[in-house]
## 1
Amino acid sequence: MHATRLQPAQAQHPIQSRSVKQSPTRMAAGEKGRLPKLIAFDLDGTLWDPEMYELRGGTPFRRHKSKPAVAVSSAGEEVHLMGPSEAILRELATAPDWKGVQIAYVSRTEYPEYAFPCMQTITVAPGLSMADVGHHAEIYPGRKTTHFKAIAARSGIPFRDMLFFDNERRNCTECAPLGITCIYTPSGMTQEMWDKGLATFAAQQDAAVTSRQ
């Protein structure tokens, strides 16, 4: 299946700036101008659970009656965001500190026909779905180096300015040589892994600057 580029959230849903509680790690990176230009997330087992191949039912998905960040499959199975994933995506999409930073979804799932409508169903901020806040979606089987090369070609963002979270070590191992900061998240997104990702990215940026001096 061909990848579908998601339109920037602000182009579709202008949103008001809001006060968002900031983590010390993010502030330390942001104050020194060392935030990534693009943050990429794997889907299955990183942002959400269960994985698409585990579902007995698929489309049509519907939004949970009382949990906007939960999609319900045609078989009644609940797909929920893991750990702080909802809060992270909401902050990236709405907090002024993250203005200009692009969000990408990078997945090797063999069920993109489930993943896309699931993203359109899960709400991460008032009036904004996962699909709305994403700028890029490379969701199809294959090596993720292919996914990232497509994103780099489309966005013009160098690999060195990208941060990537994935729960499969092999994906991190394959993509790191491109220059991407890759964070292995065996238990999915957690606050610890989020903070580690930002700190690791900032440290690598510092190291790159030092090596050029």
## 2
Amino acid sequence: NQKRSTNMGACCSKPGEQLPAVSEEELSQLRQEGHLPCIAIPSIDQTGENNLQTVYVAKYEHGMELTFLFLDEDRPNQCQDCLYDTIRRPLFGRYSDIESIIIVNDEVIFPGTYSGNQKWRTKAPKHGHATIELSKFQKHENGTDFVLWCNTWNHLLGENNTNTTTEAINYCQAKPCGSIESKDSIDYVVRKGSRAEVDARFKGLMTSVATVMTEDTAKKLGKRIF
């Protein structure tokens, strides 16, 4: 997932303590500000039990860091996928896939998580970088949540649907406050946490920390609120 700094750590330790859920007031505030996403994703991903489980939010004075945790990711080639799953847990301490975006004022930054025109059937999707105006994203029918399209099997994201003719789509929204994660649900739980804090929960042979927050972006975001 994105450029990483690594160091050796303990193999296959259990994930660290789960991060706290947002309050009902905080969830309502995120929705009113238009910073809560509706994730549109081909239904084949849920069939493979790769569901989006959690969206972690770190709120700042001038924006938001959003981190998405999927249960897994399935490569199109079954043999390659089996091999990848075999080495993924020992290396990174998790099977789950983690991706991030950052909202600064009225722009959405994709720090190595942009799909571009790539599709679900693209064998080796490339991690793109992009900055897109928030106004370019369509709104969910509730009138507040912006629609974020998950276009590739490794969960790269974009403002448009690139799988218009080949895939049925699930629309994943925030669960009510007090809900818990479930692999049987297409909707997600909202919790507090930055990408660095999410990565810190998992320890493998290589402690993986994705570089998503640059010094310049951190400066633009301002003081962290929660």
